[in-house]
Write a structure and sequence with these properties.
9 helices, two-stranded parallel ribbon, alpha/beta, single chain, 214 residues, 3-stranded parallel β-sheet
């Protein structure tokens, strides 16, 4: 999903997840330091070393939002990958590999040689990882947002359903206000609301940096 900041890109998935009763949205905010590995799992090797006792590796390993989404046991989980255009150049291709394969190997667990281990996911629940691999049970419903700060590889884009959210028209802005403040409609001065929308729309036409949430 692309669009100017404040147009509601990040909130769309919450509406879909609510309508389809998917459960809480798993949120993965992207930065220039983000990697697919961090999205799948985090391993606190330093914490384990500082503990000074020989505790199991799995106690220091937690599934990230992507790993938790892949491990959905009974239904697709909603995953928001927010502002993916802030990632480095290799991120999209690395993510594409996980999306296409639907699985990811965790070396720290693979080396244990155990058939099954239990780790915590992003919800804090215990999940079972078999033979050191996260394998997709139900493919998650993934929404990726972008402020269009850079282009992505064509193979990656071909596997996405692309949607651009345009800034709302004055009529749509009035509907947005009504939906948020309908409980207080009797106390609203409709002329002042209309004047406010007109001033806001004029600022946008003058190329001033104002967003819908403002």
């Amino acid at each position: 999903i692309t669009g100017r900041p404040g147009t509601g890109k990040s909130t769309l998935i919450a509406k879909v997840a609510d309508e389809l009763v998917m459960g809480p949205v798993l949120r993965w905010p992207i930065t220039s330091r983000s990697s697919v590995r961090n999205g799948v799992y985090e391993y606190d090797a330093v914490g384990r070393l500082q503990a000074g006792v020989d505790l199991p590796v799995e106690q220091y390993l937690t599934l990230g939002p992507l790993g938790t989404a892949l491990k959905g046991a009974t239904w697709p989980r909603p995953l928001l990958i927010d502002e993916i255009d802030k990632s480095d150049l290799d991120f999209a291709n690395d993510l594409l590999n996980v999306i296409e394969e639907g699985e990811y190997e965790i070396p720290e667990l693979r080396r244990l040689g155990k058939k099954e281990v239990e780790v915590r996911d992003s919800y804090g629940d215990l999940v079972t990882v078999q033979e050191g691999r996260i394998v997709c049970n139900h493919f998650p419903f993934v929404v990726m947002t972008s402020n269009a700060e850079r282009e992505f590889p064509p193979p990656f884009l071909r596997r996405c359903v692309r949607l651009n959210i345009d800034p709302p028209t004055p009529v749509e802005l009035a509907r947005i206000i009504e939906s948020h403040l309908h409980l207080h409609q009797n106390e609203m001065n409709l002329k002042k609301v209309k004047d406010l929308i007109e001033r806001f729309d004029n600022k946008r036409k003058e190329n001033q940096e104002v967003s819908t949430d403002q």
